[in-house]
Amino acid sequence: MNETRSKEIRITIPEELFSLFLPEDTRGHLIKAKIEFLRALRSLIDARIAALEKKETKTTRTRKKVPIK
Questions:
Q1: CA distance 30 to 32
Q2: Has this prediction a pTM greater than 0.90?
């Protein structure tokens, strides 16, 4: 089996230095983009929950007793 491996490198910069690299407007846009991304994820999760609940109500129908003669 062919596995793809990846490595992640994270660089942490103090807030004071971060503000030196990016203008205030850019930082504001990035924060708003992050919020919109999280809202998109919430929307996906809500849709999946609704689909599962709908499926659950379909499978839990009430049964009627039919008399056999």
A1: 5
A2: no
